Amino acid sequence: MAQKPSIPKGTRDFSPAEVAKRNYIIENIQHQFKKFGFQPIETPSFENSDTLMGKYGEEGDRLIFKILNSGDFLRKADEKAYTEKDSLKITSSISEKALRYDLTVPFARYVVQHQNEIEFPFKRYQIQPVWRADRPQKGRFREFFQCDADVVGSDSLWQEVEFVQLYDAVFTALNLKGVTIKINNRKILSGFAEVIGEKDKLIDFTVALDKLDKIGEEGVKKEMLEKGISEAALEKIQPIFDLKGDFSEKIDVLKQILATSETGKAGISELEFIQRAILSMLLKTAIIDLDVTLARGLNYYTGAIFEVAAPQEVKMGSIGGGGRYDDLTGIFGLKNMSGVGISFGLDRIFLVLEELELFPPAVTGNTRVLFINFGNKEALYALKAVRKLREENVTAELFPDSAKMKKQMNHANKRDIPFVVLAGEEEMAQEKYTLKNMKSGEQQTVNAEELKAILSAQ
């Protein structure tokens, strides 16, 4: 009995219509990337394990897909770890490569390797798949595309301002209204850790705080207590869970909470700079909001942190995010190379546009006209017309087999092709074509120029 085919959990096949819609999103994002001056690069789908491991925090490292060494990988395995069934220790001896977890760390590696060829500041964009061994659920997949834009070689806050505008430009182009660009600053989070006397537990603090949307306030506090953060410390930061008001009102509260932290005050200053600039250049579609609980859980962020929330009527996680990293390339030996970048979550944006019915009808790029095949002689006559139509950017095709008329017509209907052309002996003798509108049923006999004009105009 033949094995029933399947695909791994968290992965998907895409139909022609779905691919067309995904390409619509990618093309809009790519167009804005180019308008903002970003240049494309690509990196391998897998990296050396030591390039990726230790860059995403403990939880991130667990989600990296490892690739078994080729050949007899157990021959070089750590025998003690193998005997003790210690999976963590044995991994390094049987797996030297891993699928990339994101595009940012591979980009940092790229910058270091190609530093002598790059003109800084370097603005790059990258649209490629990434893989995470996460638990699949709505909007969360194990294989998905990221659409990243980064600038390295500049610590200017004008880059952050431009990224807010870039988000707004993309969502405006996609006609996606009601998107919220949440912003915070890693220095604010460091300031919180300082004022509660838990500076050495910054990572534990931010990882727990980043789960606020998933596990709620009580869940976050419980996790912090389990990590050794005291009850007294939690009482000191209670105001951040209750913070309300507009951007400026939240800033005023932060100034009170972080009055004794120089790091925290520096973060406030950076946020105020970005806010003032955006107020001078109002956003067209998106809303910007200060979210002091936003942490994003990644160790490499050092300044501004971004996360994009879908419109409230759509129950979806973040559809984009990013932030400032002052020394990401330092992990590969290139010091003092500040950078900032953002990412668009293609798959989640797709789901949002689908749910809100925001894809334009023409996006699917369906074949416009199908020529009916009556036999070899007629097929050749039809193909000459097909070629001329394609030269005019009309999507046209010939049914490959001289099957029954009903079968060919049904094929056009099932594929939602709006027009068919019938060209038999009578049409060939007159150098004409019979054009049928499949929706209205109307037929007309036209010459080549009229055929081209009708199909090009609609």
UniProtKB/TrEMBL annotation:
It is found in: Cytoplasm. Its EC number is 6.1.1.21. Keywords: Aminoacyl-tRNA synthetase, ATP-binding, Cytoplasm, Ligase, Nucleotide-binding, Protein biosynthesis. It catalyses: tRNA(His) + L-histidine + ATP = L-histidyl-tRNA(His) + AMP + diphosphate + H(+). Its main location: cytoplasm. One of its GO terms (molecular function) is histidine-tRNA ligase activity. It comes from the Bacteria. It is an enzyme of class 6 (ligase). Residues 1-361 form the Aminoacyl-transfer RNA synthetases class-II family profile domain. PANTHER family: HISTIDINE--TRNA LIGASE (PTHR11476:SF7), HISTIDYL-TRNA SYNTHETASE (PTHR11476). Belongs to the class-II aminoacyl-tRNA synthetase family. Homodimer. This is Histidine--tRNA ligase. The lineage of its organism: Bacteria, Pseudomonadati, Bacteroidota, Flavobacteriia, Flavobacteriales. The gene is hisS.
